[in-house]
Amino acid sequence: MTVAKSELPVFNWPTTSFMLAVHLAALLALLPSNFSWGAVGVALLLHWITGCLGITLGWHRLIAHRSFQVPTWLEYFFVFCGSLACQHGPIEWVGLHRHHHVYSDQSIDHHDSRKGFWWSHMGWLLRELPKDIEIRRFARDIANDPVYHFFNNYFLALQFALALILYALGGWPFVVWGIFVRLVAVYHCTWLVNSATHKFGYRNYETEDASTNCWWVALVTYGEGWHNNHHAFQYSARHGLRWWEIDTTWLMIRLLQLLGLASRVKLAESEAP
């Protein structure tokens, strides 16, 4: 199913312009003068910090689903890491994600996969979607926290600050790879969970949406590709339920648990058949 042109809302030009600029800037990595192994290493490290510790472990499993608990200072650290992924602020992200789980693959779902791969991957981001007051309501447990408010309002400023630090450390190669290439990689890895894991793969559970388990998405998203398992047990800190469903974020949570930093870890009621 695809969205008819007449049904599409108008472009969200600020977001569209920003995404275009970031993707074009990432192409600067093709210039030999912008390449160094140090810059590639910085990009990989920041991909893990912002994509795994920030979005996957922090914003998603810890905050959006409260599948485990950590000390407040550590929670705020994960919020900071996620803010560096530049996927809007944590209040908006968490509210939207919880909204998605309630209305997954229904018309009110912002990235309804029934509207096509492109739409659920990133097309929805580029459009002026109706303002939904429920988004903030879904995040009311964090909406009044001043730390969350700071990161929600200044996530873009943090990205500029990071760029200045990287420039001081390694010049333009560090900026091109550590900011632009890394952002594009983390963006598309995150978006594959909205698109590919509602289209490709297998299903362990008959959920009321189109969620699937997709191994190659799990590989690049630190275990988020076991999406059908996640939709079946949204509260579970572990997404890979079969022995071969490798979930590196779950391994990080187990490490935190062993260190005494993670408690009240919730798990699925049953393993996949």
From TrEMBL:
The keyword Lipid biosynthesis applies. The chain crosses the membrane at residues 12-31, 37-59, 147-168, 174-193. It is a multi-pass membrane protein. Its main location: membrane. Its cofactor is Fe(2+). GO terms for cellular component: membrane. Residues 36-250 form the Fatty acid desaturase domain. This is Fatty acid desaturase domain-containing protein. It comes from Halomicronema hongdechloris C2206.
